[in-house]
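Page 47, continued from p. 46.
Same chain as before, 391 aa.
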Amino acid sequence: MKEIINQIYLDYASTTPLDREVVSEMEAVMNGQSFGNPSSVDHLFGKQAHEAVENARLEIASLINADSDDIVWTSGATEANNLAILGLARFKKNGFKLQVISSFAEHKSVIEPCLQVKKEGFELTLLNPNTDGSVDVNELESAINERTLLVSLMHVNNEVGSINDIKSIGNLCRKNNVFFHVDAAQGIGKLPIDVKDCNIDLMSLNAHKIYGPKGIGALFINNESVGRIKPILIGGGQERSLRPGTLATHQIAGMARAYKIAKEKMLNDQRHLTQCRELFIDACKDISRLSVNGNSENVFPGILSVSMDGLHAESIIYGMKMVAVSKGSACNSDDDEPSHVLKAMGLSQSEINGTVRFSFGRDTEIKDVEYACNLYRDSVDHLNRLRGNKK
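Result:
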């Protein structure tokens, strides 16, 4: 028999459940006559698939105030990050503009492509985040010089929820004739972002963190400022030869519906997530040695990272079996390396070891937050008693 899962899900920063409307949209595509190859426009089935893809491209573009021609489909934000960084660096490499700037707080799908271009002859500058987890714009300005080609920074940090000042960074980059790439995986559909107003040249998007399907994403490429980049995959002419391969029509349609819903519900979602975060912090504020990471006004409320100095996250989570939470980023779950983000923020090893990430979502109920708070307190109290610690 399959195990019945009764856990409360508080790991929305890792992935989100599919919205029912998204499922219905995908089912309609799969069950209808849009199953044809979108590139085969010589018959009705291919034409309908092509129309579904292009309508979705318009929907994605409308959320970020982009032109539909600026949207290139990918398998997700990881591929989009790779395409943005590797594609731009390899196409624009000219022997002079050879510096790439990013930060130690980025997702591995940004840091590792940056390390790759360093192997290919670029100078790489990685900035330390401040104690809140965001990048100081003045420090970034000091790092930019006449050889800087690209700045690549995330919008919302996936571990602590800190928000970078994307508009100020975009203005700075445009003033210095530097390309600006944004990893918007955690922020898209949750916080408003306008690629024109923020002078963004490249932006990575996904679907599965805003109630859409896994395995689909997109890269915004500003055709006016960037133009052409070099593909990292070859073997087909799809997506203007920037991303070859048959397009997953049903996933693309699902992503578009998720973006449409996100646009409609963004303000209500923010209010609800703020309520969840404030409730949790208020209920646990009297726990001795508890600290909230990235706890500033400039934080996305759906992500809450808390540290218990002297305890281990694995033990805390074990005592909270009825709540699905994580130690941190899903990209670090298969190794024992400490969080590079928390380390860069200045946390001690003991604080990092005791860090648990709670992340709330559209479907999170207030009673679930209260229940999770109680379980967290009970687990911490139990471990403290075992260790002979005072509360």
